[in-house]
Write a structure and sequence with these properties.
Length: 204
């Protein structure tokens, strides 16, 4: 029960960050950023796109990361989708791009760090980075950097150059927040039960 509450708290924090990014019309990295970009381009719901984008990664996670990690991630993704759908019903408002990048990226970083440190993730590229780390020993941070770069580059069509630059800023801030928390909680994270999630924290 405590683990469920921790995942819900983490996804709630992330959903606030996503709301700020969406109201600023910018994106971030990972499947969250890809889903935001597709929702802008297609004019569809972020929640629906997020669920669809993550489907292939559930299969990879189940076979390579284990059922416990997969179930926790599935619960986190589903919770985030529902919370984001609820937030979409709030009154419309627009925020400056720089504000969305700074505040949205920071809040998302806090939420994702909390999820990582509690044995969960938001699926997608996090799982892929973990897989490459376990399979080939690749640095998950570098893998995430390449994946995020591709997502941002592909999003320029839907959000434009200037908002693309703000999106890069959001990724830098998000990554810094996660790294900061990883360093701060390095000692607890070394416990045997949590060793599988260390690459995830480094990845994003």
């Amino acid at each position: 029960m405590l683990q469920i509450l921790k995942v819900l708290l983490g996804t709630f924090i992330v959903s606030i960050g996503i709301l700020i990014l969406k109201r600023s019309e910018i994106i971030t990295g990972g499947t969250v950023g890809l889903s935001l970009s597709l929702s802008y381009w297609l004019g569809s719901s972020f929640s629906i796109m997020y669920c669809l984008v993550n489907i292939p990664f559930y299969v990879l996670s189940l076979f390579k990361m284990g059922w416990k990690f997969t179930v926790s991630t599935l619960f986190a993704v589903s919770s985030l989708s529902l919370m984001s759908a609820a937030a979409a019903r709030l009154p419309e408002f627009v925020l400056p791009g720089w504000f969305g990048a700074a505040i949205g990226g920071s809040i998302m970083g806090l939420g994702m760090a909390y999820l990582f440190l509690n044995g969960s993730s938001l699926g997608g590229s996090n799982i892929l980075a973990l897989f490459f780390h376990k399979k080939f020993g690749w640095n998950p941070g570098k893998v995430m950097f390449v994946l995020d770069g591709l997502i941002i580059a592909g999003s320029f069509y839907s959000i434009g150059l200037f908002k693309g630059v703000y999106s890069v800023l959001s990724i830098v801030i998000l990554s810094f927040i996660i790294h900061l928390f990883k360093s701060r909680f390095a000692a607890p994270a070394k416990a045997p039960a949590r060793t599988p999630i260390l690459p995830a924290a480094e990845a994003s």
